[in-house]
Amino acid sequence: MKMCKSADARLESYIASKNVETSFNRVEHQKIKCGFGQQGVCCRLCSNGPCRITPQSPKGVCGATADTIVGRNFLRAVASGAACYLHVVETTARNLKTVGERKGKIKGESTLDDLASLFEIEENDIHDRAIKVADRVLSDLYKPRNEKMELVEKMAYGPRFDKWKELNILPGGAKSEVFDAVVKTSTNLSSDPIDMLLHSLNLGISTGLYGLTLTNLLNDVMLGEPVIRMAPVGFKVIDEDYINIMITGHQHSVISHLQDRLIDEDIKKLAQGVGAKGFKLVGCTCVGQDLQLRGEHYQEVFSGHAGNNFTSEAIISTGAIDLIVSEFNCTLPGIEPIADEFMVDMICLDDVAKKANSEYINFTMDKDAEISEYIINKGFENYKNRRKKIAIDIPKDHGHDDVITGVSEKSLKAFLGNTWKPLIDLIAKGKIKGVAGVVGCSNLTAMGHDVFTVELTKELIKRDIIVLSAGCSSGGLENVGLMSPKAAEEAGDNLKAVCQALKIPPVLNFGPCLAIGRLEIVATELAEALNIDIPQLPLVLSAPQWLEEQALADGAFGLALGLPLHLAIPPFITGSKVVTETLTNSLKDITGGQLILEEDVKRAADRLEAIVLDRRKALGLEVEVGEIA
Amino acid sequence: MNRIKVNRDLCMACLNCVLGCMIEHNEKGKGIYDLDLEDISNEGRNHIGLDKNKCPTPIICRHCEEPECMYTCMSGAMTKDRDTGMVAYDEKKCSSCFMCVMACPYGVLKADAVDRKVVLKCNMCNGREIPRCVENCPTGCLELGEEE
Amino acid sequence: MCRKLPNRMLGVRGGGVNMRYLILGASAAGINCAKTIRELDSHGEITMVSEDKYIYSRCMLHHIIGEMRTIEEMSFAEDKFLENYKVNWIRDTRVEKLKSHDKKVILDNGESIGYDKLLIATGASSFIPPVKNLREGKGVYGLRNIEDALRIREDAKKVSSIVVLGAGLVGIDGIVGLLEQDANLFLVEMFHRILPMQLDEVSALRYESLFEREGVTIYTGVRAEEVILSKDNRVTGIKLGNGKVIDCGMIVVATGVRPNVDFIEDNTIRVNKGIVINSRSETNISDVYAAGDVTGESPIWPLAVKQGITAAYNMVGIKKELEDSFSLRNSMNFLGLVTVSLGLIEAPDESYSISVETYGDNYKKIIHRDGIIYGAIIQGDISYCGVLTYLIKNKINISNIDKDIFDIDYSDFFSIKENGEYEYVV
To answer: Residue C305: its chain B contacts at CB < 8 A?
Structure first.
C-alpha cells in the first residue's frame, strides 16, 4: 500500500510492515484536493448552491462575494472548534461539581485555592469550594449573549482585557456566542467579513480562557498537578502482559474513577486470574498526553504515552490493546475496522465521540463507579477471548525512555526557583533568543505525519529559540527524541549550553492541546514580569500541522492575545482578500497578532525568527550583528 | 499521441480540471494558493458544459487529427506537430481574428476575457508529464491516454 | 512526419522517377497544398511559382498599412517552411501560359516548367469598378497584395484625406490599418450599412458608431459617381451619388476581386466565375487542380486551405473529397469588438424564427426554422461559438434539445471516438 511519510521513521516502517489500512495509506488516495475548498470559496448554505467563486463567476447566486463566503466558512469553523473545547470545559466543570457534591478526592488543593481566591470565593470547606468554583465556570458558560462572562477579567492579563474591551470582543455567555455565530453564518444573514472575524476573536477568548485554561486548572484540582519527571514514550510503553485499555479523547476527568480503580488489589487479582499482571491505560491522543503530564500521580496504571492522533490506528494493530475507551476526539473513524479486525471492543463515554461500532454508555460522574466496573469487566472478557486468537507485534524499539514530561506553567516556574527571572535573564542575555510555541495537531498533509512540526522545531532550536509544545505536536516531537535531554545536541550553541546546564531538552513538553492554555499563561506571566503587553514578547506561535476546527479556535485565541501565529496550510481563507489581508496584516494594528501562512519550513523559521529579533530589538535586548538584515 | 481521455460518466462538475488549468497557466505561481480566484485574467482553457439533462461534460481540446482551428488560422499561429500530435498555438503570431473560435466544432476555444487578444488553447501543459487537469481530476473522468 | 504510402498509390512514374508537382501561387491554397503533398509523398519534387515575393497572409494587410507588423511577421508559414518541406520556390514570377496539353507552363522569364500534377492557386486581383476617372487616377489603390499595402502606407503619409470605397471586410481592414496613419478617413458603401454581407443592422451599427468615434466619416447607401483629378491625373476628390464631394488625395478600392486566370488558354480549362472545380479540387483537365480564390468561390481563408489540402491528396493519388465547403462564415475583430457571422444574416421570410439575446456589449441572434439553424450573428462574447458553426453547416436538427437555444453546446452531442477525439451524436 502506498503511504505518506512520517517524521518518525520507526513508526513509518512499522506501519509499512502491517497489512492494515490506516490514514497513512488513505491520504495517498485523497491527494487530489478541491481547489475551491482549499481557498474557502465553496458555499453550500442554500439550495441555489453549491456556489463556487471563480474569476468568471465572482459571486454566489445570492450575491455573496468571496469575502462573505470565506468569512462565513471561517467563523463557522471557529465556532465549531470553540464549541468542542467549551464542551470539554463544561464536562470538566460538571465533573468537578459532582466531585465536590459527593465529597470526593481533591488531588490539587493548591490549584483549587488559587482559583477560589482568583474568583473571590470565600469558602472554608474544600468541597464546597470546589462546587463554587465549578459553578462560577458553568454560570459563565450558560449566560446569554448579552451578559458578559465574569471570569474573563479575572483570568485575562489586564492590558489584554482592556484591548478586548476596546475592540468590543469581550464574550457574553460562551455557548450563546457559539450559537449566534452559527446563526450569523447561516443563509442570507451576515455578509460582513470583518464582523465575522471579530466574532472569531471573541470565540477565541472563550476558547482560550475557558476551553483551555480553565479545563487544565479544573483538571489539576481533580486529577493532580503536573510534576516534571522523566518518562518513557512510544510503542515500547505497551506491555502485552497487561490487560490494555487504550483511551482516546480530551476529557481526562471522565476516566478519573477508572484510572484509580484499575490498580485496586481486587482488580489486579481479577486480571491475574486470566494470566495478566493487571490493567494498564495506554496513552494515545490528547487524553494520553494529559495522563503523561500528570504522570507523577499515575505511575502504576499509566503505561506511558504511545503516540498522537494518527498513531492510534497503528497502536491497535499491535494486537496488544484489549479495549478502547473514547470520550472525545481524536477518535478516528479509521480505527473502527481495525478494532473489529483485532477483536477490540470500543466503549464510548460521550456521544459526541460516538463511533458507529462502539457501545455507548452515557457517562455521568455520579455513575462513575458502576461504569468503571463495566469497563473493567469488558476489558477482562476481551482479554480472555482475544489474546489466543490475535498475534501481538509491538515494535519495542520504538520510542524513548528519557522524555522530560510534566511541564506546566507552575512546574516550570517551580523548576526555575519559583520565579521567571532566570528564564528572562537567559533571554535578555541572548542565551535563549526567544520562545516559540510549536503546538496543535498532527496532520498528514503538511509534508507528512509530524514532518513539518519536527523540521520546523529543529530549525528553531538551531537558532537558539526554545520550543514549548502542547498537543499532538508534542506527541510527535517526543517520539522523535526532541523532548529528551540528549536533543540539546540539535540546538544552537547558546541554547545547547543552557539545556546542558539545566539538564533539559530544548523542546519542552506541556502535554495535550488543552495545555496550549498553559503556554499562554507562561506568555502572560512573562509579560507581567517584564511589565509589557503580550505582543511585545519575543514569543511566537506556530500550529504548523493544524488539523481540526478546534485548532482554529485555539488560533483565534492566540491572535486575540496578540501573538504571531504560523500555519503551514492556510485555513481555507485565501480566496478572500479581505479576510486574508485582515488576518495576516491589519490584525497587527488591531490586537497585535498576525497570521503567517508559510508552507516552507525554512522560510517559516526565517519569518518567525525575524519577529523574535524585531521584538528583542524593540525591547532593547541584544541582537547579534548581522542577525537583522 | 497522448490525448486527454474523457469519461463523461465520471464527471461531477467539480471544476477542478478548470482550476488545474488556471493554476498551471498562472504566471504568479503554480500552486493553488497562488491562484487569485477573483482575477479575471485567470481562465481555464477547458470548461464544463451541461447538456439538456444537466449532465456535466468536460470540454477539453482534442488536438484533432484534422484541426479546424488550424485550417482557419490565417496567421500561422495554429500548427499541428505531426510527431507529438499536438495542435500548438503561438500567441505572438496570432492576429486575433478568432476564426479558430468560430471553427472549432466542439466549442473548446474562446478569446481571453481581459483584452480579447489571444485564444485560450490547451497546450498539454507544455510537456508536463501529466497535464494539470488530469492530475486535478478527483474522479478519474480525465485520464492521459496513449493513442496510436 | 510523412505517412508511408506504397509507390503505386503515389503514382510514381515508370523507372522510379519522382513525381513532379507544380503549384502556382504561394498563398493559403498553394502553401497548404505543398505542405500536405510533402506529408504524403516524401520523394516528389515540389515546385511553387508565385508572383508574390513573400509568403504572407492576405488577411492581415491592415497590419502593414498600420505598421503593426513587419513583412516577416506577415508570414503564415512556419519557419524554414521551404527547407522543411523541400519546396522549390520560384518567386516574383508570373505565369504567361499554361500549356495543359504539353503539361507545362511558360513563365514570364521565358522558362518553361513541366509537371505531372498541377495546382492553380493564383488567387484573384482587385476589381476596380467602372466609375468615371477611377481607373485612370493616380492615387487609386486596390488592397489585395502586400505591395498594395506598402504603397498605401507610404502615400497615406503624404495626403490629408483618404476615401475607402466599399465597406466589406477588405475595406474595413483598410480603414483599420489607415487609422494608425494621420489622414482623415471616409468610408463609402453602396449598401445602406457597412459589412452588408456579414452583418445585420444592429451589429453593423455598432461598428459604424465605433468607427465614427475614431473619426471615420461613413457614407452608406451612396455610390461613387466620379473621381476628380488634377491636371496630372492625381486624385483630388470624389463626387458621390448624393452630390457630396469629398476632397481626398487617395482612394482605396475594396469593391471585389476577379480571379487571376489570364494565363489560361481558351477552350482548355473551364472558367466560369473562376476556374470550375469539383469536390476533389479537380478541373475539367486531368492532372490540373485548382484551389482558393482563383475558383471564384467564396474568398475565405479556410476554404482555400481545405481546397489546397484536398487537391494535395488527389494529386498524390489518394482520393479525397472536400465535404465542408460551407463558406458563409466569418469572424471579425475591429476596434476590440468581435463578431462571428454564420449563414443567413436575416430571416428570408416569416416562416423563420429569430431568437435574440442582448446583454452588456453582447448581441446574439439565431435564425432558425423547424429545429434547423440557418444563421447566426454573435457579437461581443463569442466564446465556444464554433458549435453553432457546426450546427448550421451540417443542418443539425436541434428540436429535441429542450434548452435555451443560446445554451446549446457540444455537451448535447457529446460522444468519444475510439482514438479519444470528439464526434457529434445527433
So the answer is: 71-72
